[in-house]
Amino acid sequence: MSQRARIAVARKVKGAERVRMTPRPTGVTREAGRSAIDPAVTFNIPIALTWLRIVLIPVFVGVYYLPDGWLSPAMQNWLAMVVFALAAITDWLDGYLARRWGEVSAFGAFLDPVADKLMVAAALIMLVQLGRADSWLAIIIIGREIAISALREWMAQLGKSTSVAVAFIGKVKTAAQMVAIIALLLWEPVIPGVSTPWVGTVALWIAALLTLWSMLHYLRLAAPHVSESARPKPPAAAPLASIDPNAPKKL
After folding, report:
1. Model's pTM, two decimal places?
2. For a tag on the chain, would you pick the N or C end, based on fewer CB atoms within 10 A?
3. Could you give the 3-state DSSP secondary structure of residue 101?
């Protein structure tokens, strides 16, 4: 090998070692680029799953409005429960795939909670109409969803959306809510010796209590920012007039 070729190989090796040894900036991980929110994306597989959840809402509601004789009451309950459970699965799947594939988008972040609240509100209203849930429990849950959604929107305008991010108690509330709705839609005995309506009613009570608890939790987190935004800002100081040292002084 010639002297010139040896020098070229040595330079390539040094360059590769320099790139490999360059430290990664603090706080930047390999997944950082994948989880960045893309404001331009309006459709991908996670967003399609969210749209599917919205489309399934009139499907499980419409099961109870089929002509008499098409399905038995037990079949109606099973079919409505399966459709709602499928919609609930997409609630978890769309977020998981968006993070896994790096397809998190601003539109998806907006549409996902809207689909969740439409699905839960439609199910609760249907259960109240069927006489399987108390109307005041449904009002508490639906009212809380509307109030917290408005709070998060307002906090986002203040640039403090992370202050009211979904907490663990909110996830537990959602889990109890889904168990309650699925059991009350099913209404049919599944486990010997265990009443499905009783399981659904107890889970709905738990969900309502956690709904109030989580709402107080989010309001407490937002309270300092509410006080700060309501505090009047001091008026801007008027600029000092320039003084001419050569101007005549008044006696």
Report:
1. 0.75
2. C
3. coil
CA 209 to chain centre: 20
Query: Which residues touch 14 (CB under 8 Å, ≥6 apart)?
Result: none
Contact between residue 189 and residue 137 where contact means Cβ atoms under 8 Å apart: no
* Rounded alpha-carbon distances, angstroms, from residue 168 to 91, 155, 214: 17, 19, 9
Q: Is the dihedral of CA 133, 137, 139, 144 positive or negative?
A: negative
> Which tokens is 203 given?
């889970």
Tell me the C-alpha distance between 55 and 53, whole Å: 5
Tens of pLDDT, residue by residue over 169-222, are: 888 999 999 999 999 999 999 999 999 999 999 999 999 999 999 999 888 888
CA nearest neighbour of 95 among 77, 115, 80, 79: 115
**143 contacts: CB under 8 Å, gap ≥ 6:** none
Q: Which residue has the tokens 């100081």?
A: 237
Kindly provide the b/e burial profile for residues 23-52, where b requires at least 16 CB atoms within 10 angstroms of the residue's own CB: eeeeeeeeeeeeeeeeeebeebebbebbee
Which amino acid, 169?
A: I
| Residue in the structure block whose two tokens are 């107080």 | 216
Distance, in Å, from the CA atom of 251 to the CA atom of 158, rounded to the nearest integer, reads: 54
Query: Phi and psi (nearest 5°) for 94?
Result: -65, -40
- Reading the block at residue 169, the tokens are 């108690």
